Amino acid sequence: MRVGVVKEIKKDEYRVALTPGGARELVQRGHEVVVETTAGVGSSFPDEAYVAAGARIAPCEEVWEACDMVMKVKEPLEPEWSRIRPGQILFTYLHLAPDAALTNALVETGATCIAYETVETDDRRLPLLAPMSEVAGRLAPQMGAHSLEKPKGGRGILLGGLPGVAPAKVVVLGGGIVGYNAALIAVGMQADVWVLERSVDRMRELENMMDGRITLEISNRQMVEEAISGADLVIGAVLVTGARAPKLVTRDMLGGMKPGAVLVDVAIDQGGCFETSKPTTHSDPVYEVDGIVHYCVANMPGAVPITSTRGLTNVTLPYAELLADKGLEEALRFSRPLAKGVNVMAGKVTNQPVADSHGLPYTHLGDLVEGVGA
After folding, report:
1. Which of 101, 120, 169, 186 has the largest CB neighbor count within 10 A?
2. pLDDT tens profile 290-325
């Protein structure tokens, strides 16, 4: 198979979908890897590193036109939509539930669009989302702490406080991978950390994992209101696989918060879990609503591309190898997790939450690929 890697054009996105080491693995398996010129520079991988790994460097147009599968990091932006061909495989993060225009555009391409974030194992793990969730979770307290500084519009409070001065209160909404990693770093910064979680079983796990260093509360509307009213920093870390994030904090709730408090919405790529959230960029990351600072960067891991690119390739490469080695249909029959990653195929939406989000017809993947039961 001819596998293409294109340069990301999203603002402030420095990651690349494949490291030179990943390219070498595919080449050694007999596949051709074509990498767009300077695609890896933002992650400190020059073109020469890909050439040394056996890949070929080519202009953007050639990568899209010549390759059977195109690997990306972020969803294709409008200038890229017309480059996607019928029958081509697009393998990337898509986050389609909050984006009707992109969903409709991908349906019209006739391509098979596999979303990293909905590849799901039988035990409900999301292996291709996990490393970026870890990165985003670990970044969230760091970005929140920076946004809390007075020159950035925040309250002017140090997360860890001082002897004789209370630390900041950090409230994490959601105790999954993002929430755990956010709590881990916030505790390390000596903040007073509260995690709100819906599952009592997960709270027991977090209690053990964090060795009792956090306060755990059940997540419901009343507890969210109470917790954020005393918070200096609130981190939104909720996830409903493939679907829009639930709005846990409404605009009305902002009035009960401390002026200059900070909201960090890690769920913004799935529509955000704060009613007042809207996507921002690393160049212009924050804005204010009703005296509350909002940090809503939609590609947080792009700020640390060397770490993120390596972590992403570690988990996506085995699935890329499977697609390249077996071809699309056989790979989907072989791997139930990969089959669950297919969001769009042959002009049909094959992911139920995405279809429901946009009022589009849902087509079971098994109706398009014989022998697939995803």
Report:
1. 186
2. 999 999 999 999 999 999 999 999 999 999 999 999
